């Protein structure tokens, strides 16, 4: 299917508004924290690149129209602000109040962990929902220190040692939407960004699921990338370097580098992770085989 990367220029005046906000809150109060319902915290506004990335993420949240486009949006807009290896979206599907979950990740995870994260009725989700419901604020969780440890062991085995969790309140105790990100190196500023972006994340996810059944965008005829380029993308998804892919496929690093350049151009991607996300969303390549990447000329 033909699907464009969810990107559009920021509306005129966004940068000017950042400048005006910067002038409105002079730097003689560095400890000032702006309520995110009214604006961005002052230190973020002083970092022009960060401010523009946040505004772009908020502005573009209305663009994903399918889960596949949502996945690409999360890699292109959320990833630079909230680095993560795994994103899980759990939300209700009206009229049923029952939560359903969907995973978005570039690298494969174990079947057991995947089944666990895809089931909001699992003990792990019930534990997380209860924890979040106590204060309904963004949580940062050090998996290795959590009890009961058996619930979190599959995450540790998959190398996921740090989680952040936030959501949107619903009726009663159940959230309307809950979002789990797994990664490393989360600090208080990342948690603030997560709190700010959660309403946009929730809106983007809900909108992406509104596509009526039977009305999905048609799949593109023919393959976007060649069989060799599919092998390269599979290597990228596995986290291999150019050298690692070259060794697996028995070709030179120069050849791999040229293929990566062509893949980025064909997919309209800005980086390797985004290229994998777009290729996965279009189902342009198969799952990597356990025996490794196939060799070819």
UniProtKB/TrEMBL annotation:
GO terms for biological process: regulation of DNA-templated transcription. It comes from the Bacteria. SUPFAM superfamilies: C-terminal effector domain of the bipartite response regulators. Gene3D superfamilies: Winged helix-like DNA-binding domain superfamily/Winged helix DNA-binding domain. Residues 1-38 are annotated as: Disordered. Keywords: DNA-binding, Transcription, Transcription regulation. Residues 16-35 have a biased composition (Basic and acidic residues). Residues 218-283 form the HTH luxR-type domain. It holds the Pfam family GerE. CDD domains: LuxR_C_like. One of its GO terms (molecular function) is DNA binding. InterPro entries: Sig_transdc_resp-reg_C-effctor (IPR016032), Tscrpt_reg_LuxR_C (IPR000792), WH-like_DNA-bd_sf (IPR036388). PANTHER family: DNA-BINDING TRANSCRIPTIONAL ACTIVATOR DEVR_DOSR (PTHR44688). This is HTH luxR-type domain-containing protein. It comes from Roseateles aquatilis.
């Amino acid at each position: 299917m033909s699907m464009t990367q969810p990107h559009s220029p920021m509306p005129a005046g966004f940068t000017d508004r950042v400048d005006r906000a910067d002038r409105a809150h002079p730097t003689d109060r560095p400890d000032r924290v702006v309520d995110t319902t009214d604006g961005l915290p002052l230190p973020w506004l002083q970092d022009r690149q960060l401010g523009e990335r946040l505004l772009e993420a908020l502005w573009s949240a209305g663009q994903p129209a399918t889960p596949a486009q949502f996945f690409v949006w999360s890699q292109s807009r959320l990833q630079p602000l909230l680095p993560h290896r795994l994103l899980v979206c759990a939300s209700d599907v009206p009229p049923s109040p029952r939560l359903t979950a969907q995973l978005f990740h570039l690298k494969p995870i174990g079947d057991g962990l995947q089944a666990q994260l895809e089931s909001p009725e699992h003990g792990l989700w019930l534990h997380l929902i209860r924890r979040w419901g106590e204060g309904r604020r963004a949580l940062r969780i050090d998996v290795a220190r959590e009890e009961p440890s058996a619930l979190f062991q599959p995450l540790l085995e998959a190398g996921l040692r740090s989680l952040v969790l936030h959501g949107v309140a619903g009726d009663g105790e159940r959230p309307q939407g809950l979002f789990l990100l797994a990664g490393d190196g989360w600090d208080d500023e990342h948690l603030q960004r997560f709190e700010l972006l959660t309403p946009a994340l929730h809106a983007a996810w809900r909108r992406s699921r509104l596509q009526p059944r039977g009305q999905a965008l048609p799949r593109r005829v023919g393959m976007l990338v060649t069989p060799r380029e599919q092998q390269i993308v599979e290597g990228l998804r596995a986290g291999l370097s150019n050298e690692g892919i070259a060794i697996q496929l028995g070709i030179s690093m120069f050849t791999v580098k040229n293929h990566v350049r062509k893949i980025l151009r064909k997919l309209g991607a800005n980086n390797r992770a985004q290229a994998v996300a777009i290729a996965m969303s279009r189902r342009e390549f198969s799952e990597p085989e356990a025996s490794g990447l196939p060799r070819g000329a």
